[in-house]
Write a structure and sequence with these properties.
Helix 2 (15-46) packs antiparallel against helix 3 (49-76) and helix 3 (49-76) packs antiparallel against helix 15. The chain has 16 helices and no strands. The protein has helices at residues 2-8, 15-46, 49-76, 79-102, 108-136, 142-170, 174-192, 208-221, 223-231, 233-239, 246-253, 258-280, 288-306, 315-340, 346-374, 376-397. It is globular, with a radius of gyration of 20 Å. The chain has one domain (6-193, 205-403): Up-down Bundle (Growth Hormone, Chain: A). The chain has 404 residues and is mostly helical.
Length: 404
C-alpha cells in the first residue's frame, strides 16, 4: 500500500507542481461551496429547477467567448501572472456575494450578475492552469498529474458539500461565500510561489483573433483532437449538468432538504477518489481510448438508472459510479490532449474543451424544463440519452479512438 500511494502521488515531488496542486485543492473547496450554496439559494428563492439551471447558464455564458480567449492568453502571456489576476477577480466575486448575503441585501438579480462574473473568472482560469502542468512535469507523468488534479477536486468533494451544507444549516448561506473567499486568499499565495521553467515557456505571438483561428484550424485538421474534444461533451457537458436536478430530487422524491443534497455530492467523491488513485498509481496507461469510451458510456447508463431511483438508498451507489466515471474520463481525456498538442497551442486546445463545460448549463436547462414538466426522472432520462448519443457519434466519426 505505501508503494502504491507513493506512485500515485509521485508528481507532488515536483515543488512547483505541488504549489499548483495545493491551489487546486483550495480552489475546489471554494467551487463546491459556491455550487451547493448557489443551487440551494436559487431553489429557495424560486422553487424551480429551471431557475437553478438558468443561473448556471448565465455563469457559463462567459465560457463560450472568454474561455476561448483564455486559451489564447495562456499561449501568449506569462501563465503564472495571468493566473494570479484571474484568482484575484474570483476572490472579489465570492467576497461580494458574502457581503450582500450577510448584510441582507441580496436580490435574485445579484445572483445572476455575480454568477456571470464568476463564470468569467472560471473561463480564463482552466485553460491557463491546465496548460501550466506540462511545463512542470515530465511527459511520462502527465496522466499522473492530471489524475492528481481530479483527486484534488474529489477529495474536497468528499467532505466539502456536506460540510458546507452543515455550515449553511448552522449559520447562513453567506458564510459559504466567506469560506470561498478565504480559500482564494490562500490560492493566490500558492500561485505566487510557482516558478515556470523558462526553457519551456515559449509563447505564441501575433493578433489574438489570428491565434484563436489557428487553434481551431489545428483541431479541425487533426481528427483525433476533434474526436477527443467532442467526446467530452458527453460526461463533461451533458452528464455533469445532472447536478441542477438534485434540489428537486431530494425535496420532491425523498422529502428531504439541503443536508441530503450535500451528502449525495460528498458520497459521489468516493468514486472519484477511488478512480483517481487507481489511474494515478499506474506507471503507464496504454488504453486511454478504451478507458474514455467506457467511462463516458458508464456515465450515461448511471444517469438512466437515476431516473428510476425511487428509493433513497439507490442514489448512493449510482452517485459513486458517476464520480468514478467522470474522474476516469477527465484524466484520460486531459492527459491525451496534452500529450498530442504542441506546447504553443496547449492553452487553445484546453480552451476548446471548455466549450464542453460551457454547454453543461444549457443541457441542465433542458433537463430542468423536462423535470418541471414531467418529473425529475424525465430530466435524468434526457441527459442519459444525450450522453450516450455523443459516444455513438464519436465512434462513427473516429472509430480509431478506442486504440489511443
Amino acid at each position: 500500500m505505501p508503494d502504491i500511494l507513493a506512485s500515485a502521488f509521485r508528481s507532488l515531488k515536483n515543488r512547483n507542481f505541488r504549489y499548483l496542486w495545493f491551489g487546486q485543492v483550495l480552489a475546489a473547496t471554494a467551487m463546491h461551496a459556491d455550487m451547493v450554496a448557489r443551487a440551494w439559494l436559487v431553489w429557495e428563492l424560486t422553487g424551480s429547477s429551471t431557475s437553478v439551471a438558468t443561473v448556471l447558464v448565465v455563469r457559463a455564458l462567459p465560457m463560450l467567448v472568454l474561455g476561448l480567449f483564455g486559451g489564447v492568453a495562456a499561449d501568449m502571456f506569462n501563465r503564472r501572472r495571468l493566473l494570479m489576476v484571474i484568482q484575484v477577480w474570483t476572490l472579489l466575486m465570492h467576497g461580494t456575494m458574502a457581503v450582500l448575503l450577510l448584510a441582507g441585501l441580496l436580490e435574485l438579480w445579484h445572483v445572476y450578475v455575480l454568477a456571470f462574473g464568476l463564470g468569467a473568472g472560471m473561463a480564463m482560469n482552466q485553460p491557463v492552469r491546465t496548460s501550466i502542468i506540462p511545463n512542470l512535469v515530465e511527459r511520462k507523468d502527465m496522466i499522473n498529474a492530471m489524475s492528481l488534479n481530479s483527486i484534488a477536486i474529489n477529495s474536497t468533494r468528499f467532505v466539502g458539500p456536506a460540510a458546507i451544507a452543515a455550515l449553511i444549516i448552522a449559520t447562513d448561506v453567506g458564510w459559504a461565500y466567506v469560506w470561498a473567499a478565504g480559500a482564494f486568499l490562500v490560492v493566490i499565495w500558492t500561485t505566487s510561489k510557482i516558478a515556470i521553467p523558462k526553457k519551456t515557456s515559449n509563447k505564441s505571438l501575433g493578433n489574438p483573433i489570428t491565434q484563436l483561428v489557428e487553434g481551431f484550424v489545428y483541431i479541425g485538421r487533426h481528427r483525433v483532437i476533434l474526436a477527443l474534444v467532442l467526446l467530452g461533451m458527453g460526461p463533461l457537458a451533458i452528464g455533469f449538468s445532472h447536478q441542477v436536478l438534485l434540489p428537486q430530487l431530494v425535496e420532491e422524491q425523498y422529502g428531504r432538504g439541503i443536508g441530503l443534497m450535500g451528502i449525495i455530492q460528498s458520497v459521489g467523491a468516493i468514486g472519484g477518489l477511488t478512480a483517481g488513485l487507481f489511474i494515478a498509481s499506474r506507471r503507464e496507461v496504454s488504453y486511454k481510448g478504451r478507458l474514455m469510451l467506457f467511462a463516458a458510456t458508464s456515465y450515461g447508463v448511471a444517469l438512466l438508472a437515476f431516473s428510476g431511483a425511487v428509493y433513497m438508498w439507490m442514489v448512493f451507489p449510482l452517485i459513486i459510479w458517476i464520480g468514478a466515471s467522470q474522474t476516469l474520463f477527465r484524466a484520460g481525456n486531459s492527459a491525451t490532449l496534452m500529450e498530442l498538442a504542441p506546447d504553443r497551442l496547449r492553452g487553445r486546445i484546453i480552451s476548446a474543451t471548455l466549450l464542453d463545460t460551457a454547454l453543461a448549463p444549457f443541457a441542465g436547462l433542458a433537463a430542468g424544463v423536462a423535470a418541471d414538466r414531467w418529473g425529475v426522472g424525465a430530466g435524468y432520462m434526457l441527459l442519459s440519452a444525450g450522453c450516450l448519443g455523443i459516444v455513438a457519434l464519436v465512434l462513427v466519426i473516429y472509430p480509431r479512438i478506442k486504440d489511443l
